[in-house]
Amino acid sequence: MSDTARRLRGSEGHGSLLELVVIVAVAIGLALLIQAFLVKPYRIPSESMEPTLDVGQRVLVSRVNYRVGEPDRGDIVVFHPPQGAESNACGVEHAENELCSRPTADRDDVNFIKRIVAVPGDTLSVRDGHAIVNGRVQDGDDDVRPCAPGTCNFPKPIKIPPGHFFMMGDNRGASDDSRFWGPVPEEWIIGQAFGTYWPPKRIGVF
Length: 206
Fold this sequence. Notes:
Distance between the termini: 63 Å
Number of domains: 2
Radius of gyration: 23 Å
CATH class of the largest domain: Mainly Beta
Structural class: alpha+beta
Number of strands: 12
């Protein structure tokens, strides 16, 4: 083989390696852009959304839905809770059997996933874990896992303040949620969960 042929073959090898590096870099960049602006995967960390979502299940969360529309009752959303949520801190004084009507002022950096049960302007009370919205049991509430009879009762209605959304886990007896730390400001909502991709037997859209 001539020196020219060897040099050409060597150049092709370097060119192929450079092309592979560029392809990988572009793929990583696209993946990061998709997660930052379009769709982000999340893993379910606890049993608070059972039976709808199991521990370890993976969901896809749209980061664009609420740029063109408003969060609504029944949506499953990922959001930042208020600071102190992990210890059930409420932003206002309230009786033990009363819902928390206001969150603490600052948001936490952790991510929670729950279902919106009430939107701004709604009146809300809770009976055995069931959300009573504007005097009626919330549509679709038959699919949640309620509390044991006589527990999880918050009979005094509260009104959801402007720009806030009240979150509850579907496993009502095993979920620390807005009942204890208050409704969530809209700007703390990251996005809406719309489908699940793991485990394979649970693949589907909501």
